[in-house]
Structure formats: structure tokens, C-alpha cells
Specification:
The N terminus is likely disordered. It is built from ten helices and seven strands.
């Protein structure tokens, strides 16, 4: 057993896992996955610029990394497993490259390393225009309607909508800009931890080519798809998502040079 691992009766054994959420949501987006991993040591911080996390000045990728470093210093002991989805995946890559000794294993889900300038601008302008037209509450509903690909309980959709809809519009658009202009391509080769890249098979926001580019750039990374899931794969189909995490984090051969591309069942 590695020094960072703890034994929890009746559960898998893989130490502390920090989950980083997607754009506009918060740590509560991981409820479904947490329910599939009872007893595990899980931390779900909420990023700067999101629910309850006021900030001064512009949001940047480096600020997110510094904030995550402070959180891990305060809340965790030893190297952690770092799991990030979408924006959280970008943050996780950047942190892992900057602090290789502090990440036991890395999981990047439904994310991207870089968007071409025209694509980034179109996404930023599109969200700005929709927020201006519908307000944050209307934008939140529209975003979830177009993003969730599996049936989700109405009460859960309401909860997710409140997370996004309750954000200040100007702060949210600052976060949008920081997310879509982020470029972690140069970080990929510096990731030293075993890495798993996950992609919802129905993800149209960050589709398979984006996931494959991340896996190709990180030495030894594995690539797996989550069936029946879109961009928010951990919410659309949490059990296969959690099973893929468990298999990866408990595999003694994790991080071997051979890359695989399979579908989690």
C-alpha cells in the first residue's frame, strides 16, 4: 500500500480524491459520483468566481491553480488523486504540470487543452449574448437543456440551474473568458502522474478529438468513453463514470506507457 492510501472498510482504496467542477457549477455537481463511492475520502472545492467564492480582479488559470494549491495545502495530506471535468479538467492539467509531486493520479473528463481563437471567441460571444437576452436564470436552463443527454430528476436539474443562475453575470462572463481562452497544450508533456482521460460518447461540446488530443499529449495516458453520456458525463451516467475512476485509481499498473481507448460499461 502506498503511503498516501488509506483503508476504508467496504470501499475501494485509493486515498484522497479532489474533484474539480465544470464551468458555472460548483462542488455539488459531484453528488451522483460521490453516491457511487461511499466512504471514499473525497473533497469537492468550488473554484474562484463560482458559487460563494467572491474574488477581486480578473480570473486567470494561474489564479485558479494558486487557489487550488492553497486548498490542498489546507485540506489534504500527501499526494492526491485529481479529477476535473471540463473547466475542472483544464485546471487539473495545469496543476498537475506545475506540481507533479503532489498528484498521485490525474483524471481529465470532457475537457480540452486549447480552443482556436475563432472558436473561443464564438463561445464567449454566444454566452454573453444569451446571458444578455435571457439573464443568468434563463441561460442556466438553456445550458442544461442542451447539455444533459440523459434523464435527470427535475429536482436535480433545478439544483444545477440554481448553481449557474445564481452567479453574477459579469463574474460569470469573466470565468467564461478565462475558461475558453485557456491553453494548456504546453503543460501536457509535463504531466508526470498516471492519467486517465474520460469522454462522454455523446459529448458535442468537447468531443472525442479534444479528448484524444489530451491523451496523446500526456505520456502514458489512457482514454475511455462513458456510454450514454454527454458533456456532463458524471451527471448523465454516474455509475460507469465512478466505475472507470475506481478501476483506474486501484490498478497497480496504472500509468503504463500503453494507451488504451475503450468504452466503460
Amino acid at each position: 500500500m502506498r503511503p498516501s492510501e488509506v483503508s476504508l472498510p467496504g470501499t475501494t482504496v485509493f486515498g484522497t480524491t479532489v474533484f474539480l467542477h465544470s464551468l458555472g457549477l460548483d462542488g455539488g455537481m459531484w453528488h451522483e459520483v460521490r453516491d457511487c463511492l461511499p466512504g471514499s475520502d473525497i473533497r469537492t472545492p468550488t473554484s474562484l468566481g463560482h458559487r460563494g467564492r467572491a474574488h477581486e480582479g480578473a480570473i486567470t488559470l494561474d489564479r485558479w491553480t494558486d487557489d487550488l494549491t492553497a486548498f490542498i495545502d489546507r485540506e489534504c495530506v500527501g499526494p492526491v488523486n485529481l479529477v476535473g471535468l471540463s473547466l475542472g479538467g483544464i485546471q487539473a492539467i495545469h496543476f498537475a504540470a506545475r506540481h507533479p509531486g503532489r498528484v498521485r493520479a490525474l483524471v481529465v473528463a470532457d475537457s480540452f487543452a486549447y480552443l482556436p481563437d475563432d472558436v473561443a471567441r464564438a463561445r464567449i460571444d454566444g454566452m454573453r449574448d444569451r446571458v444578455g437576452e435571457l439573464g443568468m436564470a434563463g441561460h442556466a436552463r438553456a445550458y442544461l437543456d442542451e447539455t444533459l443527454t440523459a434523464p435527470v430528476a427535475p429536482v436535480r436539474v433545478d439544483e444545477l440551474a440554481r448553481s449557474i443562475g445564481g452567479l453574477d453575470a459579469e463574474v460569470y462572463l469573466d470565468v467564461v473568458r478565462a475558461c475558453f481562452t485557456a491553453d494548456v497544450r504546453a503543460d501536457l508533456a509535463d504531466v508526470a502522474s498516471p492519467t486517465l482521460v474520460l469522454i462522454g460518447e455523446r459529448d458535442e461540446k468537447t468531443p472525442m478529438p479534444a479528448a484524444r488530443a489530451i491523451a496523446d499529449g500526456i505520456p502514458g495516458a489512457q482514454l475511455r468513453s462513458i456510454p450514454g453520456a454527454g458533456h456532463l458525463a458524471s451527471i448523465d451516467n454516474p455509475r460507469p463514470f465512478a466505475d472507470a475512476l475506481t478501476a483506474f485509481l486501484t490498478d497497480e499498473t496504472v500509468g503504463s506507457p500503453a494507451r488504451t481507448e475503450t468504452s466503460a460499461s
